[in-house]
Amino acid sequence: MATAASSGAGKIKVGLALGGGAARGWAHIGVLRALNAAGIRPDIIAGTSIGAVVGACEIAGQLDALEEFARELTRRRVLGYLDFNLSGTGLITGHRLGERLRKQRGNMTFEDMPRRLTAVATEIGTGHEVWLSRGNVVDAVRASYALPGVFRPVKVEGRWLFDGALVNPIPVSVCRALGARYVIAVNLNIDISNRGTISYISPMPGSDQELEEAPPVTAKNGMGVRQLLQRQLLGRGEDVPGISTVMVDAFNIVQDRIARSRLAGDPPDAMISPRLHGFGLFDFHRADELIARGETAAKREIEDLMRELDTRHEASGSRQMPVV
Q1: Catalytic: 144?
Q2: Are 184 and 16 a contacting pair, CB within 8 Å?
Q3: What angle do CA 88, 21, 133 make, to 5 degrees?
Q4: Catalytic residue, candidates 7, 43, 49, 133
């Protein structure tokens, strides 16, 4: 016999805040696998960036399809989804990835969802935090993960939006505002939080020399441009970071500082923090490892989660009878 740990009729509302983290977001799949196996099914999911993608698939009942897609990704297939943009507001248009999402979820709207879902985005110009909870789900999700400078922003209801991690990296506050009485947060960047020390560096002789220029890439039919963009985006080796490494690392440092500040002011009731040191933000081809890390991290917290939820249910006077 076991008590029903999931939220349901007569029980307190449980919210799940899924944070951003690019490829690290595959760990969210493992977290959800562990929570579902324990009978914990959140009533509300608020997601930022990749958290919005995984949260939408979970509520739509398509987590299996997303996991299958993630596990099949290779480096080559990841590059295939990077439709490089030679002009405009981002290196990648995001159309190919958007079409893949649309193929899986069609024209599903938030109103079709059986549980409450909200995607967090940031408005260009004003910096306003935007909660997307109506209309087309794919458009909202694309806006939530539109990393500035990498993906093109997305226009939703006349507003240009990009990655919500700039304003609310782990949207605990969204879950609370939507009525969640118990909020579980998933922080994918806990290892970044431990890197905020101050270092003093003395310039070394020759340190002001510029990086050696790589030979130009030339080819027919535009392949040279594509190869150049790939090299610039992903880097030329371990010692020479690409644009993505520089931009995303800078973005994540800012995101981490914002997350720490917001979590201090509105802490979750429980935190799941997968150990993801060594995983790059563009390591989408490492889904097997990331999913496993997420599941392991969630399982470490399951016992405490079950006990706390049962205590909250008892305190609210809505504890259910045992389920056989």
Answers
A1: no
A2: yes
A3: 75
A4: 49
What is the number of residues in the chain? 324
For residue 28, pLDDT over 60 is answered with yes
- Which tops the pLDDT comparison, 248 or 307? 307
Q: Which tokens belong to 259?
A: 């997350």
233 within 8 A of 240, measured Cβ to Cβ: no
d(CA 152, CA 85) in angstroms, rounded, equals 9
Which of 142-151, 157-166, 246-255, 288-297 is the least confident region? 246-255
Residues whose CB falls within 8 Å of the CB of residue 280, separated by 6 or more in sequence, listed in order: 23, 245
Q: Is 133 a catalytic residue?
A: no
Question: Tens of pLDDT along 142-180?
Answer: 999 888 777 788 999 999 999 999 999 999 999 999 999
CA 29 and chain centroid, separation: 11
What token pair was written down for 67?
């996991």
pLDDT bin (cut points 50, 70, 90) of residue 187 is: very high
Residue 227 DSSP SS3: helix
Task: Let me know: does 214 contact 207? Beta carbons within 8 Å.
Answer: no
Mean pLDDT, all residues of the chain: 80
Annotated catalytic residue within 43, 139, 163, 283: 163
Strands (E), 32-181: 44-48, 90-92, 116-123, 129-132, 149-151, 154-156, 159-163
Strand partners, 109: 136
Strands 270-272 and 182-186: parallel
Provide CB contacts within 8 A for 107, sequence distance 6+: 136
